[in-house]
Amino acid sequence: MKGISSIFSSLIVTMIVVSMSIPLFMYFNSLYNISTNSLSNSYEYLQNSTATRVTIIGFDHDIYIYNAGNELVVINQVMVGNQTCSINSYTLNPGALLKLNQIVRNCSFNKNETIVLKINNVYYYYDYN
After folding, report:
1. 30, 61, 119, 124: least CB-packed within 10 angstroms?
2. How far apart are CA 5 and CA 12, in angstroms?
3. Counting beta carbons within 10 angstroms of the beta carbon of residue 113, is it exposed (0 to 12), middle (13 to 18) or buried (19 or more)?
4. Domain 53-126's class?
5. Among 122, 104, 121, which residue's Cα sits nearest to residue 113?
6. Cα–Cα distance between 108 and 39 in angstroms, integer?
7. How confident is the model at residue 128 (pLDDT cuts 50, 70, 90)?
8. CB–CB of 110/128 below 8 Å?
9. Which of 64-68, 69-73, 103-107 is predicted with the least confidence, judged by mean pLDDT?
10. What is the per-residue pLDDT across 36-67, written as a single tens digit (0 to 9) for each?
11. What is the dihedral of CA 112, 83, 80, 53, to 10 degrees?
Protein backbone atom coordinates (compact mmCIF):
# COMPACT_ATOMS: atom_id res chain seq x y z
CA MET A 1 0.00 0.00 0.00
CA LYS A 2 2.86 2.32 0.83
CA GLY A 3 4.36 1.75 -2.65
CA ILE A 4 1.10 2.61 -4.42
CA SER A 5 0.68 5.87 -2.49
CA SER A 6 4.29 6.74 -3.27
CA ILE A 7 3.66 6.15 -6.99
CA PHE A 8 0.47 8.26 -6.91
CA SER A 9 2.18 11.08 -5.05
CA SER A 10 5.00 11.02 -7.64
CA LEU A 11 2.41 11.16 -10.44
CA ILE A 12 0.63 14.08 -8.78
CA VAL A 13 3.90 16.01 -8.42
CA THR A 14 4.76 15.23 -12.06
CA MET A 15 1.32 16.43 -13.21
CA ILE A 16 1.70 19.68 -11.26
CA VAL A 17 5.16 20.31 -12.74
CA VAL A 18 3.94 19.56 -16.28
CA SER A 19 0.84 21.74 -15.86
CA MET A 20 3.00 24.66 -14.63
CA SER A 21 5.54 24.33 -17.44
CA ILE A 22 3.16 25.56 -20.18
CA PRO A 23 2.28 28.90 -18.48
CA LEU A 24 5.93 29.42 -17.55
CA PHE A 25 6.98 28.76 -21.13
CA MET A 26 4.35 31.20 -22.41
CA TYR A 27 5.45 33.87 -19.91
CA PHE A 28 9.15 33.62 -20.75
CA ASN A 29 8.37 33.50 -24.47
CA SER A 30 6.36 36.73 -24.27
CA LEU A 31 9.06 38.33 -22.11
CA TYR A 32 11.67 37.40 -24.72
CA ASN A 33 9.53 38.82 -27.56
CA ILE A 34 8.97 42.09 -25.69
CA SER A 35 12.68 42.54 -25.00
CA THR A 36 13.55 41.67 -28.61
CA ASN A 37 11.07 44.25 -29.94
CA SER A 38 12.36 46.86 -27.51
CA LEU A 39 15.93 46.21 -28.58
CA SER A 40 14.95 46.40 -32.24
CA ASN A 41 13.15 49.73 -31.71
CA SER A 42 16.14 51.13 -29.80
CA TYR A 43 18.48 50.10 -32.61
CA GLU A 44 16.24 51.68 -35.27
CA TYR A 45 16.01 54.88 -33.19
CA LEU A 46 19.81 54.99 -32.80
CA GLN A 47 20.37 54.30 -36.48
CA ASN A 48 17.84 56.98 -37.45
CA SER A 49 19.38 59.59 -35.15
CA THR A 50 22.90 58.79 -36.31
CA ALA A 51 22.02 59.00 -40.01
CA THR A 52 20.08 62.27 -39.63
CA ARG A 53 22.27 65.34 -39.97
CA VAL A 54 20.23 68.50 -40.18
CA THR A 55 21.62 71.92 -39.41
CA ILE A 56 20.13 75.39 -39.04
CA ILE A 57 21.87 78.22 -40.88
CA GLY A 58 21.19 81.87 -40.13
CA PHE A 59 22.05 84.11 -43.08
CA ASP A 60 21.10 87.79 -43.24
CA HIS A 61 17.56 87.95 -41.84
CA ASP A 62 16.55 84.46 -42.92
CA ILE A 63 16.89 81.06 -41.29
CA TYR A 64 17.57 78.00 -43.43
CA ILE A 65 17.32 74.27 -42.72
CA TYR A 66 19.99 72.17 -44.44
CA ASN A 67 19.89 68.38 -44.73
CA ALA A 68 23.56 67.41 -44.60
CA GLY A 69 22.84 63.69 -44.22
CA ASN A 70 22.40 60.99 -46.82
CA GLU A 71 18.83 60.14 -45.90
CA LEU A 72 15.47 61.73 -46.54
CA VAL A 73 14.12 63.59 -43.50
CA VAL A 74 10.52 64.41 -42.66
CA ILE A 75 9.91 67.51 -40.55
CA ASN A 76 6.79 66.89 -38.47
CA GLN A 77 6.75 69.86 -36.09
CA VAL A 78 8.51 73.19 -35.56
CA MET A 79 8.74 75.03 -32.25
CA VAL A 80 10.21 78.52 -32.24
CA GLY A 81 10.79 80.16 -28.88
CA ASN A 82 7.80 79.24 -26.76
CA GLN A 83 5.28 78.74 -29.57
CA THR A 84 4.49 75.60 -31.53
CA CYS A 85 3.91 76.20 -35.22
CA SER A 86 1.39 73.97 -36.92
CA ILE A 87 2.72 72.52 -40.16
CA ASN A 88 2.02 69.59 -42.41
CA SER A 89 4.75 66.98 -42.70
CA TYR A 90 7.46 68.42 -44.89
CA THR A 91 10.01 66.23 -46.70
CA LEU A 92 13.58 67.44 -47.13
CA ASN A 93 15.84 65.58 -49.57
CA PRO A 94 19.55 64.97 -48.88
CA GLY A 95 21.63 68.03 -49.69
CA ALA A 96 18.56 70.28 -49.86
CA LEU A 97 18.39 73.76 -48.39
CA LEU A 98 15.04 75.13 -47.25
CA LYS A 99 13.92 78.47 -45.88
CA LEU A 100 12.18 78.14 -42.52
CA ASN A 101 9.57 80.66 -43.72
CA GLN A 102 8.45 78.15 -46.36
CA ILE A 103 7.46 75.66 -43.65
CA VAL A 104 6.17 78.01 -40.96
CA ARG A 105 4.07 80.72 -42.50
CA ASN A 106 1.82 81.48 -39.54
CA CYS A 107 4.52 81.99 -36.87
CA SER A 108 6.68 85.02 -36.33
CA PHE A 109 10.23 84.48 -35.13
CA ASN A 110 13.67 85.99 -35.15
CA LYS A 111 17.14 84.55 -35.49
CA ASN A 112 17.97 84.67 -31.77
CA GLU A 113 15.16 82.37 -30.61
CA THR A 114 15.55 78.70 -29.82
CA ILE A 115 14.32 76.37 -32.56
CA VAL A 116 13.17 72.80 -31.93
CA LEU A 117 12.47 70.58 -34.93
CA LYS A 118 10.74 67.23 -34.81
CA ILE A 119 12.49 65.32 -37.57
CA ASN A 120 11.61 61.66 -38.24
CA ASN A 121 9.79 61.64 -34.86
CA VAL A 122 12.94 62.72 -32.99
CA TYR A 123 13.34 66.20 -31.48
CA TYR A 124 16.41 68.29 -32.43
CA TYR A 125 17.31 71.44 -30.52
CA TYR A 126 19.07 74.47 -32.02
CA ASP A 127 20.10 77.56 -30.07
CA TYR A 128 22.00 80.58 -31.32
CA ASN A 129 22.85 82.01 -27.89
Report:
1. 61
2. 10
3. middle
4. mainly beta
5. 104
6. 41
7. low
8. no
9. 103-107
10. 777 777 777 777 777 788 888 887 778 888 99
11. 150
